[in-house]
Amino acid sequence: MPNPLACKAAWQERQQAGGLPFLSPVTSPMPRFYFDLVLGAFPNRDEVGYEIDSLHMAEIEARRTAGELTRNRLLQVQGATSEDIRVEVKDEQRQPVLTVTVSIQVDHEALMPSLRM
Question: Pfam families recorded for this chain (predicted)?
């Protein structure tokens, strides 16, 4: 089970790995989107936000982030986790505009005879 620090670490890892490619350090007329991360039951609120030119581009970034977090989580746990990974995108007024959820579930129907304990 992840802890709140794992969620924060995942966000920091994402920023160190190149961050959000649409990050703009100057003020512009582009809309600001916030990318809140949720690993299982542990949320990590994006306090800064990022200027991205469209909702479509924000969705692409949310998908990319969710995929990378899922991959990193699977490598750390070395197996499937039953906890969802969500990237919740909010607009400038902090209103939800989209959510990307990645869920992995492994169901073992039956063990092969040679694998029984």
Answer: DUF6894
